Amino acid sequence: MTYCVGMMLDAGLVFMSDTRTNAGLDNISTFRKMQTWEAPGDCTIAMMTAGNLATTQAVVSLLNERTKAPEDRTPSILGVPSMFQAARMVADTLREVIARHDASGQEASSAFNATILLGGQVAGSAPRLFLIYPEGNFIEASRDTPFFQIGETKYGRPILVRAYDPAMSFEEAIKLLLVSFDSTVKANLSVGAPFDLQVYEADSFKLGYSRRIEADNAYFRTISDGWGEALKQALDSLPDYEM
After folding, report:
1. pTM attached to this predicted model
2. pLDDT, tens digit, for every residue of 98-140?
3. How many CB atoms lie within 10 A of CB 39?
4. Mind listing the domains of the chain with CATH numbers?
5. Among 51, 1, 3, CA closest to 21
6. Which positions ≥6 away from 19 have C-beta within 8 Å?
7. Helices 218-237 and 170-187, interaxial angle, to 10°?
8. CA-to-CA distance for 5 and 155, rounded, in angstroms?
9. HSE-up of 99 (CA within 13 Å, CB side)?
10. pLDDT, tens digit (0-9, with 9 covering 90-100), for 162-197
11. Cα 125 to Cα 19: distance, rounded to the nearest angstrom
């Protein structure tokens, strides 16, 4: 399993993903699930993946390969005129990979399925964020749905729903995401550190702050311990049930 979150802010976009993959409790590995592309001054794109590892790596490899192919052969994700077209390209590539590996054709229930978060900005339009399904269709984030999650989403969602504010700073958003990831890690062994973080500032058209946060990172430990203590204090402050 995995856990990835893409979040829209007034200031731009924030992406965070875990790196754990497992095929049983005795076969746990670390793989990067975040991919970025950049054409400074023109477009910046980030993508996170969840699902079958062979499928997601094939999608990333194809997209990377096509950025190096001659323009008359295959369009590059760095050459799209809009983020909508980038989402279509990634969706088509995902559908292509799944269909190639699954003899029964494109099915959401396929063992080769994957889900993708894609966000970024192309010159001439605002930053955008998309959730791409294994069937190849996708939806876009909006003011009503300002963040997307993929993978093991249920444990980390409540804090995002309660505390998200589009006006928050990047620093506040990262703190919120780390609380969400900490809650997920504590509830599900199939999600784990290190976490990959990528920030994109709106209209900058270049990759912003990027970092891998290890399990023993001092700030992450402060957040984890502080959040646990704050929850205990909040519970203690509530009135006891009367029998």
Report:
1. 0.92
2. 988 765 555 554 578 999 999 999 999 999 999 999 999 999 9
3. 17
4. 3-237 (3.60.20.10)
5. 1
6. 30, 31, 32, 33, 192, 193, 194, 195, 196
7. 80
8. 12
9. 9
10. 999 999 999 999 999 999 999 999 998 889 999 999
11. 31
